[in-house]
Amino acid sequence: MNQGELVGGLLVIFVLAVIAIATIVVFGDLSIRPRPRRLPVWQYTHRVIGKDQPYATSTGSFPASEQRLWELWRESHTPGSIVAVPVASDPVAPKPVADSADNSGRSEAEDAEANADTNPSGADAGGDTPSVDAAEKIPEVRQMRVSRVSRELRSVYPLALVGFNVYFEEYEKTEFPVGLIVRGSDGVAMMTLTDDDIVAFDERGRRLWSSRWERLIFSNAHDLLLYNGHTQIRIDDEDQRDLVEALVVKYGRFEQMHFLPGPERRAPDADE
Hints:
Blueprint: H1 3-32, E1 44-49, E2 53-58, E3 62-63, H2 67-76, E4 82-87, H3 108-118, H4 130-136, E5 140-155, E6 161-168, E7 178-181, E8 190-193, E9 197-201, E10 207-212, E11 217-220, E12 224-227, E13 232-235, H5 242-251, E14 253-254
Parallel strand pairs: 11-14
Antiparallel strand pairs: 1-2, 2-6, 3-6, 4-5, 5-6, 7-8, 8-9, 9-10, 11-12, 12-13
């Protein structure tokens, strides 16, 4: 082998080594580079607070200790993001009925002919065609901007399960001020809720307990536990506490304070 062939062979080996090293570097960088995080596709159940405030809640329930899903819910519903919410459409106005005085001079034959012209399909004047009925059943969808998210306790025993909620800017703090009659521990007989705080009073109007919203910690199960960082009260009035609970869940912070099974909450009557 002459010197030229030796140099050529070494050059080929050098080029192949450079290519191999470059390949290792490129594929190694791709393997360790963080991939974009995929957020899950959530299924919603749509509910209302009071009479007309819509909000969305997760259809599924999750272990209370599962922080990863809660973080994913928060990432999926950052303040300012958009969620599509179905809303009830406005009722269709009834069709006007012609004044009988206007038709007093017309014969039955003329009336029948007029009806045939305006309703050739033979349907009743006040009825809608099946296609119209089908269209009316499609709910209207509104694009709503997220203001906040929350968690709530849905089950305590044998496993604590929570659900996730999302609320919207259009209704932020529109519930306040409000005063509600509720029964609870330590003689609680009434609560007032404002933009800043929640306050409990006894039957004589004496202030028993209060908490600013940013300090309020709650746990909701067979009763509603409220903690302001110093003292705790319990609201156990099933008939009157629903709105208080809905607002506490919306503006407070959930921490599990129920660990043992309690009595099941009474289901609302069918005629309510």
